[in-house]
Structure formats: structure tokens, C-alpha cells
Amino acid sequence: MTDQTALRAAAATASSPHDPDQAAGLHHDGDPGPDRAVAPRPDIPLLGYMMASVHDQLRPLGTPIPHDRLASLSPDRRAAVTCAVTSAVNGAAADLLDLLPNLRRIVSAGAGRDRFDHAGLARRGIELCDTGALVSSDTADMAIALLYALARDIPRADAHVRSGQWTNAHFGHRTRVAGKTVGVVGLGRIGWLIAQRLSGAGLSVLYHTRAARPDAPWAHEPDLAALARRADFLVLAVPGGAATTGLIDAAILRALGPRGFVVNISRGSVIDEDALISALSDGTIAGAALDVFQSEPTPDARFATLPNAILTPHIAAITEDFAAELAAEIARLVRQALP
Known about the structure:
Elements: H1 3-15, H2 20-23, E1 43-46, H3 52-58, E2 63-66, H4 75-79, E3 83-87, H5 94-97, E4 105-109, H6 118-124, E5 127-130, H7 132-152, H8 154-162, E6 181-185, H9 189-200, E7 204-208, E8 219-220, H10 224-230, E9 233-236, H11 250-256, E10 261-264, H12 273-282, E11 287-290, E12 309-311, H13 320-337
Helix pairs in contact: 3-13, 7-9, 10-11
């Protein structure tokens, strides 16, 4: 190779970055670089926090843009955006959507749709794609785990051993699960799996929906209060939103009774929390297991004082298997909407 040829090769190498983040217009801290006349790859706005695995899947497709950097992009780059990514927790803020005039699809991590302005999305011509099918199995597993943890009082049994109390006192009797009746409120993907798995575990399953499902092998109870009266366990698996806000109120909890337990893996808004705290405090019901709350991540502090409440930080779907599947599914849905 001549010196002149070597110089040309070196110049070509210097002008063609090998670092994929640099090639994508990202600095090494992961932030978008200065605007360019033509973006080398599609920009993919992130309308809220996303797991690292999602970033990893999106980078081969385009440049992930954090929501707090969108306004700094040039109007041309923002106008070129056709797809954005968010989550059921973050939703899609109107001020962010205003920055993306040609957005046509939002891919949302999770099943929840209650934090989206559906009429507003329709007016803008934006399609909302959720990943709810992926959360179903893990969420159903969590509901069943919480039900058993309540019935057998597992958190307090663990504390009994750790504290050394076992040497001085018997832990006492708890509730058998097999042979009991569970009332499943909502029979969508998650509710169906809960009913199916608990039926296999030897429980009698009833379910409540506005209309009976002809394909369901379990008994339908159209009256929610009657379901609560018949059930030992009430498991909530309904969507959030105005139609289900405060669905489980003081009257339903009284119907469930002092030997009844409630499990909520749906949305915190589904339960009247003041009524639930009162019912747990005065023995109206035996216990509750909650993975969701009206205020997250700062639930009502009174819950922490209740020994008959099991509290988990909205982790029903959060497993390693789910994280990998979610990232791949988000990438697939994004890829479909890119130019």
C-alpha cells in the first residue's frame, strides 16, 4: 500500500465511527448528540423510564431519545418520528405528544391503558400497542403466590423464626387453601389464568364480569356482593379506569366477611383504600395482599402498620423471563412502525 493510499484509508476510518452509539448520534453518556441536517437512523422517543434491556433491543433499530431531550431536537427530527415507546405507568403526556406531530404508534410496556387519553390519541391518529399478553402468566402467578402467603401467613411465619420466638411459642393454626372458594373479579387474560390455576389447585372457582363468558367452565356470579359473600378469597383482575374505580368498597368488604381475604394485582384504584384500611383494622375481613396502590411508589402509610396486610411494590409481572420477552416484543412492534 502506498503512503497516499494508507492516508486515504486512515481518513475514511476516522470519518466512519465504529462505536454504534456514536454512529447513532449519541454521546458516550447515552444522550443524543447535536442535531444534524439528516439523522442517520430513526429517532425513537422514550416517553418515560425504560429498562436497559429495552434500550439494548432498540439501539439496532434507531436512536432512543429520552423524554427530557425531545424538545432539544430540531423540528425536522421531531417531525420525522413515527413511533415512540412508553409504559403503562408513564402513559403519554400531551406536552410530549405535541412535540411529535407525525407520531403514528406508541408501544407501551405493560397491560394497563388507564393512564392514556384514548380520545386524544384517536384525534392525533396515534395507535396504542400494549404488551399485555406478556404480563398475564407472571401476574397470575403472583396473585396465586399472594393468596397462599395470606392464607398460610408466610411473612409472619418467617418473622417468627428469624426473631427467635419459635423457641418460646407455637406459631398457631392458619387457613387451608384447597377446598375453599375463590371469587375472581374480571375474567380477561389474567383472570382466566388465575381461575384455571386455582381450579387445578383444588379450589372452587366463581367469577364476576358484567356478562357471562360462554367459554368459561366456571360459575358466573353477576352480583359482586353475592360473589364476596360466597368467596373465601376475592382476587381482583380487572382493568383500571373510571368503570372500576372504587369497585371494592365498604359494602363489598363487609360481604366478604371476617374470614375472607382480598388479593389485588389489578390497579390500586379498584379498591376504596380508606374502606380497606378500616376493614383490616377492625377485623371486617381477615387480610389483604396488595401489589398495587392508589399512590405509587408512596402508598398510604397506614398500610405499613397493619399486620394482616401483605404489601409488594407492583412487581407482579417483573421476572427475568418477562424482561427479555418484553424487550423483544417492544422492538418488534417498533420495527413495524419505522420508516
